[in-house]
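Page 37, continued from 36.
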């Protein structure tokens, strides 16, 4: 058996696993970090939550909104990612970024001649762009930690398994691994 790294997201909880040549898989991350909770936190902070929806449906709607928005609206990447640990630390990183993003001035706030309906739509679109940027950061952190593990273990094959649909994460992971000459297998 060839050694490989596996990024597995099960019920929105990402973990990294290493499988050496002997085939005995070893879990590299221990913390249970729930991506759906991070997404719901972002949605709540930027008034994007729809009332009376099941949590999974709500998360899927928020991911869909983020996919339709501008992920480059926020250009900052957290500088305090712990490169000594493979734990993702998503909640801490995103909470700091939420606080920063809440300080962003509302677009067209200085325009007086605008209907409230139009102002609400502009504000919602800005919130969607902020959410897309924050979710993009979540993906970047997961990809960065995966790349860190692959580098440290000298791995050239990464398997990605997910029970959840995160198309942008899959795309970003594939792009970064390809750039480094690491094969990605979608299981």
């Amino acid at each position: 058996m060839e050694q490989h790294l596996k990024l597995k997201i099960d019920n929105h909880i990402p973990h990294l696993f290493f499988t050496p040549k002997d085939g005995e898989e070893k879990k590299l991350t221990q913390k249970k970090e729930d991506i759906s909770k991070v997404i719901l936190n972002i949605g709540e902070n930027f008034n994007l939550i729809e009332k009376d929806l099941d949590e999974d449906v709500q998360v899927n709607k928020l991911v869909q909104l983020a996919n339709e928005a501008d992920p480059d609206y926020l250009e900052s990447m957290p500088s305090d990612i712990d490169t000594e640990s493979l734990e993702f630390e998503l909640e801490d990183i995103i909470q700091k970024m939420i606080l920063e993003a809440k300080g962003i001035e509302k677009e067209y706030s200085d325009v007086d001649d605008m209907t409230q309906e139009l102002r609400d739509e502009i504000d919602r679109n800005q919130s969607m762009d902020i959410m897309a940027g924050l979710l993009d950061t979540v993906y970047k952190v997961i990809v960065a930690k995966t790349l860190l593990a692959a580098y440290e273990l000298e791995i050239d094959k990464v398997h990605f398994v997910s029970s959840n649909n995160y198309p942008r994460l899959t795309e970003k992971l594939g792009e970064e691994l390809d750039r480094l000459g690491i094969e990605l297998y979608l299981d």
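The mean pLDDT is 92. Flag for discussion at group meeting. Helices lie at 35-45, 55-68, 90-101, 116-153, 167-179.
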